[in-house]
Amino acid sequence: MPNVKSRRAPTTATPIRNVHYVPSTHWDREWYQPFQDFRRRLVRLLDRTLADIASGTLRGPFTTDGQAILLEDYLEVRPERAAEVTGLVRTGKLKVGPWFVLPDEWLVSGEAIIRNLELGRAIVRRHGGVPSDAGFLCDIFGHVGQLPQIFAGFGINNALLWRGLEPRPDAHLWWEGSDGTRILCYRFPRTGYCDYAFDIRHVHQPAVAFDRARADKELDALLAKEAARSKTGPILLFDGGDHLEYELEYYQALFARRTGPDFPYRIIHSTLDEYLAEVMANAGAVKDRITGELRETAVHPCVVDQQWLIPGVLSSRVWIKQSNAACQALLCHWAEPFGAATAALCGKEYPAGFLAVAWRWLLMNHPHDSICGCSVDAVHEDMKYRFAQCEQIGELTTRESLQTLAASVTGELGAKDLRVLVANPLTRGLDETVELTLQLPGDWQCFNEFFGFEAKPGFRIYTAGAKPGFRIYTAGGDELPYQRIAQEMNRAKIRPYPAKFPQSYRTNDVTVAVRLTVPALGYTTLVVREGECAPKDEIVSAAMLPTRHPEIPGLAASERSLENEFLAVTIESNGTLTLRDKRSGESYARLLTFEDVADIGDGWYHGQAVNDQAFVSTGAQADVALICNGPLLTRFRVRTVLRVPAEFGFDRMIRSERMTDLVIDSLVTLRRGADRIEVRTTVQNNV
């Protein structure tokens, strides 16, 4: 009897299943090439896509990788096609959003994620379209636990993700966020959003040419695999690999397949939203559930799963993380709240347009290949400009808001008095020693101490002497003691005028420490007054003479120690700190210890060498300098010098025998009334 292979025809028990084919691309705006190189490729891709939609070659919508910035990048080069693009967005032929850019979730703030979604959806609406409600997270390096809550706030009830979630038997599961919000998730297959591109198109094998028979066979295998994972019914075929255009031969072959006994599927040219709508209709079939943040690593070997989590980016190019945190704080804690306060209290226009531009510059640095610090150098050089634009706008709008608030304060002010506004952006009140830089008028007289050689602002000195210092008062007239920290004399400034040329003026900038009480999300005002002069013939008492050192003892207990009401700190000879909590009696040693090891990795990963040595600062010598000492604040500079290998030799995979100095400067500050030590460390990284 001949060997006959039987084929099972579809029955009512095994219905025809919809296969949602979604043509897209995953577009990293900048990565292994700078932005302009990738944009050239984007323009070619969208030129072809628009032409194929117009001709009917592409018979359905094209998805723009979940991010709206692709439209702006394209139209900046092709402004003549704006009406055409708007028409396609309006009719849904281009499916755009919900993001402005696809961000990394761990290195940006929750507010930045919200602004990202707001801007992406707004761009789609400006083109007359409906933003996608697909929670597209195809290549993000793990996910924060609050994302379900954030998505739900925009009406997004789903997520499509890969990294951070190990493979499961079922493609769908419920993700419960930190607050209990639950959304339905689709987990991409082994090779993620590139599964179709790898398994069918062989994009990783340029020499493999299109073959219809092979493509049909491989499609059958892929659909069988996905059907087994998809308990809700519909199957997703996402065709959107990194920077890839769709291939016409595979596209035509896909839609040439006909539903029948040998092919129990119906191919639909679709969008992620349409696929998710069918999944949600059968959501009762989803039983699996996961809670909280998603930081699961890949399963080895990689034939099982390829979703590496890539956590090493958290420390790549630290300056990027510092700049981003500073810009986010500037906008969220200074520019926006005090802009709103000025609008509410003083009737000043809220700078919405300027702040929107600042946010746009900042969000352009939030794609994972950008903010993670894992791209070519040219990419990260471009980021410096974007951070600078955000910072300039944030500083400008904050300064104008605070100046307006200060000008609105009522109360008597002498002709030469200065009113200083001190703002607190925190949600808790402050009652502590703060540092202020006062810009004193250049025509305020200065003094020299007896036999002194450096002028100090704030005194009008005559032969008979003068009262010490400029004076600082509360708004109620109470004088505040202060400590002089530093000064910069004769600083040139520019004062612009709306209808006149700008004029220059000079100030003497003096940094002081003073204890203040400032309400939460509020401000207090001070009056700074020039020191009064004694009549020339008046005999000046010793109490009126300026002195170099405070008459009240400072917080420096010795040349290497600090102490206030709560803490006693000793700087050891190797630069480490020993801290004693005077309330509990507990001591903590070897604080501020540094370790240097080889890193042979890249922008994604920290690589530890097998033949390596750890160099620890506990064996180093440290130089200690007293920067300032007074009753309100004392600061030491600790310079630690580590002798470390000058380089890593990749030929022998070992660090060099030639040594060099790694210099680490730490400013150690203790304030009166503070139960904390503040440390600001700068590493002169020349290794």
Question: Features of this protein?
Answer:
26% strand, disordered N terminus, alpha+beta, five-stranded antiparallel β-sheet, 13 helices, globular, Substrate Binding Domain Of Dnak, Chain:A, Domain 2, 7-stranded beta/alpha barrel, 27% helix, five-stranded mixed β-sheet, 4 domains, 687 residues, Immunoglobulin-like
Written description of the protein model:
With 687 residues, the chain is of the alpha+beta class. It folds into 4 domains: 17-309, Alpha-Beta Barrel (7-stranded beta/alpha barrel); 315-408, Substrate Binding Domain Of Dnak, Chain:A, Domain 2 (Up-down Bundle), CATH 1.20.1270.50; 429-544, Immunoglobulin-like, CATH 2.60.40; 556-684, Distorted Sandwich (Beta-galactosidase, Chain A, domain 5), CATH 2.70.98. The protein is 27% helix and 26% strand. The protein contains 13 helices and 32 strands. It has a 5-stranded mixed β-sheet. The chain has a 5-stranded antiparallel β-sheet with strand order 20-21-22-23-24, with no helix packed on it. It has a 4-stranded antiparallel β-sheet with strand order 11-19-15-16, covered by helices on one side. α7 packs across α8, α10 (318-346) packs parallel to α13 and α11 (352-363) runs antiparallel to α13 (377-408).
